[in-house]
C-alpha cells in the first residue's frame, strides 16, 4: 500500500496522492451505519450480561464507525490528509481492540466452568499475556499509521514497515491463541468438568465456535492487510477498493455479529449462576445431614 508524494514544481505546493482510486461514499456510509448499529447492540448487551470485558470491542466498533465515515469523506477529498488519516488510523487499529475482548472471553469461560486444569495456560496469565501482546500490536500499528501523515516519503516508508511488522506479529499471536482455545475445547469434550456433567443443558460448544469464527475473520483480515502493505501500489489488492470492503469491513462486521448472536456473556452468566446454585444446594444438604445426625443421637431421642 503505497502513498505517492508529489513535490511542488515551479513554485506550486507539494501534495500527496493517498488513493489510486476514488473512495466510494455510498459504501463508506453503509458500513458506517452497519458498525454503528452493531456497536450500539453490543453496548446494550453489555448491561444485562455484566460484560465489562466487551468494552474494548465496543471501542473497536466506534473506531470502525468513524473510520468508514473517513472513507466516505475521502470521496470528496482524495488528496486531503485529514480524511485519509482518520480512516487509516481508526480502521487499521480497531481489530486489536476487538481481539482483546476475544482473548478475555476465553479466560472467563475457563473460570466459569472451573476448568483451569484443562487449559494450557492459567486463565489469569492467558488473558494478561495475550492482551499485553495485543496492546503491543495496537501501539505498533497506531504508531506506524500515525507517522504516515507527515508527508515525508522516507518517514512514510518507515511507518509502512512498522505497520507491516505489527500485522505479522498479530497473526502469530492469533495463531497461538487459536491453538490454546482448540486444545481447551478438545480437553473439555474428553474430560468435562463437574458443571457440564451435572448440567448437560449448558450448551457451550456454539459459543466456542463463535470465538473461532471471530478469530478466523480477524486473522484473514490481518493476512490480507499484510499482503496489501507488502504489495506494490499497482497490485490489484491496492488498486481496487473492493478488497477493503470484502476482506476488512465485512470480516470485522462478521466478528462483531457472531458475538452478538452467541454472546459469551450469556454462557458465562448462566454457568456462574449454576455453579452458585450447586454450591448452595451442597451446603444446604450437608447442613441438613449434620442436623439429622445430631438430633438422632441426643439423649432421650434414641430410636428402637
UniProtKB/TrEMBL annotation:
TM annotation in the entry: 27-45, 52-69, 89-106, 126-150, 162-184, 204-223, 243-262
Family annotation (Pfam families): RTA1
Alphabetized UniProt keyword annotations: Membrane, Transmembrane, Transmembrane helix
Signal peptide (UniProt feature, chain positions): none
Domain of life: Eukaryota
Keyword Metal-binding belongs to the record: no
Subcellular location: Membrane
GO CC terms, sorted: membrane
Name of this protein: RTA-like protein
Amino acid at each position: 500500500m503505497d502513498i505517492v508524494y508529489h513535490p511542488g514544481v515551479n513554485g506550486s505546493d507539494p501534495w500527496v496522492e493517498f488513493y489510486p482510486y476514488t473512495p466510494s461514499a455510498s459504501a463508506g456510509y453503509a458500513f458506517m451505519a452497519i458498525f454503528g448499529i452493531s456497536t450500539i447492540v453490543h453496548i446494550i448487551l453489555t448491561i444485562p450480561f455484566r460484560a465489562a470485558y466487551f468494552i474494548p470491542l465496543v471501542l473497536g466498533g466506534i473506531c470502525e464507525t468513524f473510520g468508514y465515515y473517513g472513507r466516505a469523506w475521502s470521496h470528496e477529498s482524495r488528496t486531503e490528509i485529514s480524511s485519509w488519516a482518520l480512516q487509516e488510523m481508526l480502521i487499521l487499529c480497531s481489530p486489536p481492540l476487538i481481539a482483546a475482548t476475544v482473548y478475555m472471553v476465553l479466560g472467563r469461560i475457563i473460570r466459569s466452568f472451573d476448568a483451569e486444569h484443562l487449559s494450557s495456560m492459567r486463565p489469569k496469565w492467558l488473558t494478561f499475556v495475550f492482551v499485553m501482546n495485543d496492546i503491543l500490536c495496537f501501539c505498533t500499528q497506531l504508531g506506524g499509521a500515525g507517522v504516515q501523515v507527515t508527508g515525508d516519503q522516507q518517514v512514510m516508508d518507515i511507518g509502512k514497515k512498522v505497520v507491516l511488522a505489527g500485522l505479522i506479529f498479530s497473526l502469530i499471536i492469533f495463531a497461538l491463541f487459536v491453538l490454546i482455545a482448540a486444545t481447551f475445547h478438545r480437553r473439555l469434550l474428553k474430560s468435562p468438568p463437574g458443571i457440564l456433567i451435572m448440567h448437560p443443558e449448558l450448551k457451550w460448544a456454539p459459543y466456542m465456535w463463535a470465538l473461532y469464527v471471530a478469530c478466523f475473520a480477524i486473522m484473514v483480515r490481518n493476512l490480507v492487510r499484510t499482503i496489501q502493505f507488502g504489495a506494490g501500489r499497482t497490485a490489484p489488492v491496492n488498486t481496487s477498493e473492493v478488497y477493503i470492503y470484502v476482506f476488512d469491513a465485512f470480516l470485522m462486521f462478521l466478528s462483531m455479529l457472531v458475538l452478538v448472536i452467541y454472546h459469551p456473556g450469556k454462557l458465562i452468566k448462566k454457568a456462574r449462576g449454576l455453579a452458585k446454585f450447586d454450591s448452595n444446594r451442597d451446603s444446604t444438604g450437608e447442613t441438613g445431614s449434620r442436623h439429622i445426625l445430631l438430633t438422632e443421637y441426643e439423649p432421650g431421642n434414641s430410636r428402637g
